[in-house]
Design a protein that fits this description.
It holds the Pfam family SLT. The chain is mainly α. It contains 40 helices and 2 strands. Helix 3 runs parallel beside helix 5 and helix 26 crosses helix 29.
Length: 658
């Protein structure tokens, strides 16, 4: 049955990805005689070309490109002209190869090769794919990696281990990765365990559509998987049944029900436990435990104790087992949870640090010190904490780098940097960052510091910070932790009694000092203030005549942002850890997270167990930033642990703040 289903999938895929004929290509390339319309400037025409290309409108893109024959960024004009014709391999290979030869070594040529490789993989043109893939410099596209493994597997190479290591994030899969799973299932490199793991992972990650694309590769049909996802209560009521697919569908349904009611899911599992194998019971409890952990329920740790150490879990599940143990103070489970992680995950500084802390609790001082030492040179949250465990404090030496005219001239004459600045002037941040970062490849520490200074001179502070952050040995803390608008910031923080280092730590994380920064939810300016929040704060502090278009003004943005930070800090008992979480996720959420604590925990445990990925990283980065800023401002060693403090449980009460 599997083979017939798989052959049907292949047939559909081949039919849908067949290349258009040369006649269709000629039709695509034909243009009508209608005028394209006038634009105020060549930049406006270029922006219209970009939009037409992104909309896969080859006729309009060709017309617009023809008006830009003397534009100062010809590689992008030619890219946007050609890109719509890459889709479905409409453009002749000769045109694509000509472009790559003309602009070889540039960021945009690498981008075009990425686009072409995706279409080659989709069409199954493995000869051309295999020729071009080694030339793709960035190699940062998960789908292309999946296509590369598919090509190798079709030639008889065993790629199962590489595929398991790659296939961890379903949101990045696309058809290339689900086809890889099917190929490996068909040729026996993936077992049913592998495929069902991928289905569970996709459902767990919220990508039901990806999970359903894998149903042809298991002994269950789409309707059954859809029912386990969408009508999970019915599947639980029916029970696991006798066959493998019934057991797997039951486990899927447990995870879905647990999202809303872990107690109900646990009850269903207990009632049917004797119908499952020991390994299936572990996987089932892991489904429930993960959802309970994400809700910070105290019983999560009990669910995790039902999961065997050798159970194959998702990356999230491995990590949340340890986070639940940290919240519950179960150091034995912390150790066993970290030991069970795959090697790559276990090597993350987060888990090196916490495993060293376990060593401390067990009196294994030498082992703990070795682990702390291995990450203490890293300028990040856990590197700083490790340094403190070694009896040292965090320092940041202010430096005044001197760069020679020859060093600066090399940056000024760098064509990629010039294109980047051109794009930044046009507010094309994506293209600008791509060009800038492309040029940083292979630079020495000294060159990176010079490039960061070039960014500073051109008032592109986010590039200064990100470029300087890349150095390995030479560190310039003034570049990494700039403090522009110091006069405005000093006035506002002093008036409010706020820690200026913390505010700068927030800004560095929020906007990287881009005054025009705007988030996808509408937050604006240096401190990323939301319009509704700005109005509320302006009214609260008596800022008369305020309108939301003033948010982008530096003085107004800092005034509103610092006042709101001060209100949030007061609302959360002066805890910078809680207040930082509130600034990112809203003031009600950290109150709720705090209320579920089983007892007082150190601030690092609270931060690590924040259930929102973005907010967890945000809080750790903000407080790490603030510690370095304090070291720079005060000129003396600082303690991140002291800044984190402790967080104690407190009954949940709604916040009055927006």
């Amino acid at each position: 049955m599997f083979k017939k289903k798989w052959l049907a999938v292949i047939a559909v895929a081949v039919a849908s990805s067949a290349a258009l004929t040369s006649t269709a290509y000629a039709q695509k390339r034909s243009t009508n005689s209608a005028a394209i319309g006038s634009y105020a400037s060549q930049d406006d025409a270029f922006l219209a070309l970009r939009d037409a290309s992104r909309a896969n409108n080859p006729d309009k893109a060709e017309l617009l490109a023809s008006t830009l024959s003397d534009y100062d960024i010809p590689s992008y004009v030619d890219y946007y002209r050609l890109k719509p014709l890459i889709k479905d391999l409409v453009a002749p290979q000769a045109d694509i190869r000509d472009y790559l030869n003309r602009y070889e070594g540039s960021a945009i040529a690498d981008r075009l090769r990425n686009d072409w490789l995706l279409e080659l993989g989709k069409a199954g043109d493995w000869a051309t794919f295999d020729e071009q893939y080694p030339k793709f410099v960035l190699d940062d596209d998960t789908q292309l990696k999946c296509y590369a493994l598919t090509s190798a597997a079709l030639k008889g190479t065993n790629v199962a281990a590489e595929a398991r290591a790659l296939l961890t994030t379903p949101k990045d899969y696309g058809p290339g990765c689900t086809d890889l799973i099917g190929t490996l299932a068909q040729n026996g490199q993936f077992t049913a365990d592998d495929v069902w793991f991928q289905i569970r992972l996709a459902v767990e990650s919220g990508f039901a559509g990806v999970a359903r694309r894998m149903t042809p590769f298991v002994d269950a049909d789409d309707a059954q998987v859809a029912q386990a996802i969408d009508k999970s209560a019915l599947v639980l009521a029916r029970g696991p049944g006798a066959g493998r697919s019934g057991h797997e569908l039951f486990i899927l349904a447990l995870g879905r029900v647990a999202k809303n009611d872990t107690g109900r899911a646990a009850g269903a599992l207990n009632a049917s436990s004797d119908q499952l194998t020991s390994s299936e019971r572990s996987l089932a409890w892991a489904q429930i435990a993960l959802q309970s952990a994400l809700k910070l329920e105290p019983q999560a740790i009990d669910y995790w104790r039902q999961v065997k150490g050798n159970a194959v879990l998702s990356s999230d599940a491995y990590q949340w087992r340890v986070r639940s143990a940290l919240r519950g103070g179960d150091w034995k489970l912390v150790r066993s949870g970290i030991d069970a992680m795959p090697a790559a995950l276990r090597a993350d500084p987060t888990w090196i640090y916490w495993l060293a802390r376990v060593d401390q609790t067990e009196g294994k001082t030498d082992e703990a010190q070795q682990k702390f030492q291995s990450i203490a040179d890293q300028t990040n949250f856990y590197g700083q904490l490790a340094l403190e465990e070694l009896g040292q404090k965090i320092i940041a030496v202010s430096s005044t780098q001197a760069f020679t005219p020859a060093e600066m001239a090399a940056m000024t004459n760098n064509q990629g940097f010039r294109r980047a600045l051109r794009f930044f002037d046009m507010n094309l941040r994506f293209e600008g960052v791509r060009e800038w970062n492309w040029e940083l490849r292979g630079m020495t520490d000294r060159q990176l510091l010079t490039a960061a200074e070039f960014a500073r001179q051109n008032n592109v502070l986010d590039r200064m910070v990100n470029t300087s952050d890349r150095t390995k040995v030479e560190v310039d803390f003034n570049q990494r932790f700039p403090s522009p608008h110091r006069d405005v910031m000093t006035t506002n923080t002093q008036n409010l009694g706020l820690d200026m280092a913390w505010v700068y730590g927030v800004i560095r994380q929020e906007s990287r000092f881009m005054r025009s920064a705007r988030s996808n939810v509408g937050a604006s300016g240096l401190m990323q203030v939301m319009p509704a929040t700005a109005k509320w704060v302006a009214k609260k502090i008596g800022l008369s005549g305020f309108t939301t278009d003033q948010i982008s003004d530096v003085n107004t943005n800092i005034l509103l942002g610092t006042n709101y930070l001060s209100m949030v800090l007061s609302d959360l008992d002066g805890s910078q850890a809680l207040a930082s979480a509130a600034y990112n996720a809203g003031p009600g959420r950290p109150r709720a997270w705090r209320s579920t604590l089983p007892g007082t925990v150190e601030g690092a445990i609270f931060a690590e167990s924040i259930p929102f990925n973005e907010t967890r990283g945000y809080v750790k980065n903000v407080l790490s930033n603030a510690t370095y800023y304090a070291a720079l401002f005060d000129g003396k060693p600082q303690s991140l642990k002291a800044r984190l403090g402790t967080v104690a449980p407190k009954g949940f009460v709604e916040s009055a703040l927006p």
